[in-house]
Amino acid sequence: MTTTTLRVWADVLCPWCWMGHRRLAQAIAESGVPARVEHRSFLLAPEGPGPRRRRIGEVAAVEWGISEAEWGRRRDRIEQAGRADGLTIRMDTAWALDSRPAHRVLKLAAARGLAETVAWEAMFAAHLRDNLDLADWNVLADLKTGLQRDEVLALGENEDYAAEVLADHEEGRSLGIRSVPTIVHGDRLVAGASSVQELTEFVRSAAKAVA
Fold first, then answer.
1. CATH number where 54 lies
2. From the centroid of its chain, how far is CA 143?
């Protein structure tokens, strides 16, 4: 049977992307068809954060202009949804940061032929569960992405894969993607944070299209 390729646009800053990452893996396993995921970078903050470093809880009030009560409802909804997928998500204390360095590391892992799913999982957990600073190359170098520490640090000294990250983002925008996660097969798009059942049906439908 032909292997079905699914392209997934996501940002490591996005809690729904972590949930979608887990749900898609489960959906592929339950679909009974061979499928592989090609990860694409999407930048929720393409201009990067402001000059002053802030945690997300502070950004919600200062930059997003939403009330403390409204942020509390959003935060609780995200964290409860994460727990349903077996994930610990801490939104208040996650950093608002430029995710491009993290995406460049993920591109390097892919270029090395390493398990992209493992590398993405490490990034999601570091940001959303452990609230580590993914703008710090020493932090990125210590993550279990399969890469050697010295090659990650070397990446921080050049601009390798920066163009590829931006190209992914622009391609996603050209496809009409405005929020992530989004899964693409052919001309069909589906929200990656859909239920496992919905994603399983999407995977099976995609497999039939290439059979």
1. 3.40.30.10
2. 15
